[in-house]
Write a structure and sequence with these properties.
α3 links the parallel β2 and β3. By secondary structure, this protein is an alpha+beta fold. The protein has a domain of 106 residues: Ribosomal Protein S8, Chain: A, domain 1, CATH 3.30.1370. The chain has four helices and five strands, in the order αβαβαβαββ. A five-stranded mixed beta sheet has the order 1-4-5-3-2, sandwiched between helices. It is 29% helix and 13% strand.
C-alpha cells in the first residue's frame, strides 16, 4: 500500500488552522510543582486501637426438630436475593461433610474442624449432611438438631437452609459462610 505523501503536509495545515482559530495565547506561569511528577507514597500512621467484636447473639438450642422439618436460619443483613439462591441450591457447593453414623460428640468435633478448614479455604457455601434421624434409638433426629443448633450459633455462618432433594433434602443443610479477607 503506497504511503500518503501529503500526510505530513495535512498535519502542518491542521496545526496552522488550529493556531489561527484560537488566536493569541498567553502562557500562564505557576510556582507549583509539576502535576505529572511522581509523588511520594504516603507513610502509614500507627494508631493504637482495640479490636472490638460485635456481641454474639446466642440462639437457644432446640431438640424439637423432626425428621421432615424444613430448617432455615439467617442473620440480619443478608440480601433476599442471596437467601433465595441458597434455598434453591443455586450457590455452588465448595465442600461437603457427611455426619451419618457419628455420635453427637464426634459430629460436634467434625463440624468444628470442618468449619475452621472451610474458612481457611475461603469457601462460600458448604453442604452438611446430617441425615433425617430415622434410625435413631428414639426416632428423634439427634444429628439434625445438633447441626442446626451448632451452625446457627457459629459467627462464621451467615445463613443455612434445608437442602434441595437432589442434595439430601431435609437430611442436609446448605450453609452460607462469611467471606473471609
Amino acid at each position: 500500500m503506497p504511503e500518503d505523501k501529503n500526510k505530513h503536509l495535512r498535519s502542518d495545515d491542521d496545526s496552522q488552522l488550529f493556531r489561527e482559530s484560537i488566536g493569541e495565547v498567553k502562557v500562564l506561569r505557576n510556582n507549583k510543582s509539576d502535576p505529572l511528577s511522581v509523588k511520594p507514597k504516603p507513610k502509614p500512621v500507627k494508631k493504637d486501637f482495640q479490636l472490638t467484636l460485635p456481641p454474639t447473639t446466642f440462639h437457644q438450642p432446640t431438640n424439637s426438630i423432626q425428621s421432615d422439618d424444613l430448617l432455615f436460619f439467617s442473620r440480619d443483613g443478608i440480601q433476599h436475593k442471596t437467601i433465595k439462591r441458597l434455598k434453591r441450591g443455586a450457590i455452588s457447593i465448595d465442600e461437603k461433610l457427611d455426619l451419618h453414623g457419628l455420635t453427637a460428640q464426634q459430629a460436634s468435633q467434625y463440624l468444628t474442624t470442618f468449619l475452621a478448614e472451610q474458612i481457611i479455604q475461603k469457601s462460600r457455601c458448604v453442604l452438611v449432611v446430617h441425615g433425617k434421624g430415622i434410625g435413631s434409638a428414639n426416632q428423634q433426629p439427634v444429628l439434625k438438631n445438633l447441626a442446626f443448633n451448632f451452625l446457627k450459633n457459629e459467627s462464621s455462618v451467615l445463613a443455612l437452609t434445608s437442602a434441595q432433594q437432589r442434595d439430601g433434602g431435609t437430611g442436609a443443610l446448605y450453609v452460607l459462610l462469611k467471606k473471609s479477607n
